Amino acid sequence: MPGTLSLRPRSLNAAVDSLGRARPNQFFNLPAVPVTRRVYSLITDFVNPDRIPTMATVTISKLEKTYAEAKGAGIKVVHGIDLEIKDREFMVLVGPSGCGKSTTLRMIAGLEEITSGTISIDDTVVNNVLPKDRDIAMVFQNYALYPHMSVYENMAFGLKLRKFPKAEIDQRVREASAMLGLDPYLDRKPKALSGGQRQRVAVGRAIVRKPKVFLFDEPLSNLDAKMRVSTRTEISKLHARLGATMIYVTHDQVEAMTMGDRICVMKDGRIMQVATPLELYNKPENIFVAGFIGSPPMNLFKGTLQKAAAGSLLEFVETNDKAAPLRVTLAAALSAKGAAYVGKPIIFGIRPEDVQDTAGLTASNPAHTVDVKVEVSEPMGAETYLYLSTGVTSFIARVRPTDRFEVGQMVKVTIKIEAAHLFDPTSELVLK
């Protein structure tokens, strides 16, 4: 056939397994099939290891970490966690200081000894594998650049230690440099770079390794607010371009929400919930996730459930001995979830954007409207954060930027009741 090449097929798995090791004409001894030159090009691009990242799934099973003490059983900081990071996924570990997220990342990297449990990369348990042999690359919080080396030398150093050919080192460094916009700075020392540029060099040093897994340990915490926003965008773009598996640790829930494919929320060495950003925001499984995810966080009110005056609906009544309590009638679905809690303590949750200024609504339901006092008004430009009080509970509403409020002013707000949540105060789990 004119304009075609004769190509012997092989399985996709075989193509992946032999990335860079077989030429296109070194296929299995199967009948040849005609392939256009364009398809031939696509196939050779596919088997090029520079185009397709190595596949990597990270599986954590019953992982524990205990620091020994001279006296006593030691301090357990990670409590038997289970987590699977999918191939090419951007997984964020988020939580307050001391929750065990960085310790978990360091155990994946091999920098912390595992007390019990297993860590597997591509179904291979790596508990006893040295960090240098795990095929991972880590970006540290403090950059960890060599001050006496140039940007080029910092990025190339790891490859030189592994005895890579000079030509390949140069190719990898310049590819990563172009990707990160570091070409003008290759001859500079780290002291001549800004914080954001130093962090890009640290990321570039990881990229040239072409690892199975990238690990980021709070890489933006040393940057100013504006630089954090731009750098997190660059890391997200980098993930989309490389298609690599990335595990990212942060205490900043805004970073987690904007960057992660999925987020693992941790507290006191335990996993609270693993889900997509929107699922965490809209369907928190417990009080901790509800209060940690979101900026500002979810408003939480302590109270009880009572039967409403008419019908089968329930009413939430705030526990308040200082002023008129917040009272709202629940929607039918939420009433059904709380049916077993009538007369019992309950926690009512509502997001700030679901607390609306009644004056700005075309219609409002009196059963969902309450009178509260303004404590602080914070104009943010695109919106205003209104800090309100029922007398015992302070909470936040996100209202229109054109509205003006005075401290001490009494205002009416309407609760978007279909967006509310109920939590058991003992287990702290959401009612389902």
Explain what the structure shows.
25% of the residues lie in helices and 29% in strands. It is of the alpha+beta class and 432 residues long. It has 3 domains: 4-46, no CATH class; 58-291, P-loop containing nucleotide triphosphate hydrolases (Rossmann fold), CATH 3.40.50.300; 296-423, OB fold (Dihydrolipoamide Acetyltransferase, E2P). It starts with a strand and ends in a 9-residue tail after the last strand.
Jot down its keywords.
five-stranded antiparallel sheet; Rossmann fold; alpha+beta; OB fold (Dihydrolipoamide Acetyltransferase, E2P); disordered N terminus; elongated; six-stranded mixed sheet; 432 residues
Distance from first to last alpha carbon: 64 Å
Placed side by side, the strands forming the largest sheet appear as 8-9-10-5-11-12
Counted up, domains total 3
Highest-level CATH class of the largest domain: Alpha Beta
Oligomer: single chain
Mean model confidence by pLDDT: 85
In brief:
The protein has 432 residues and is of the alpha+beta class. The chain has three domains: 43 residues, no CATH class; 234 residues, Rossmann fold, CATH 3.40.50; 128 residues, OB fold (Dihydrolipoamide Acetyltransferase, E2P) (Beta Barrel), CATH 2.40.50.140.
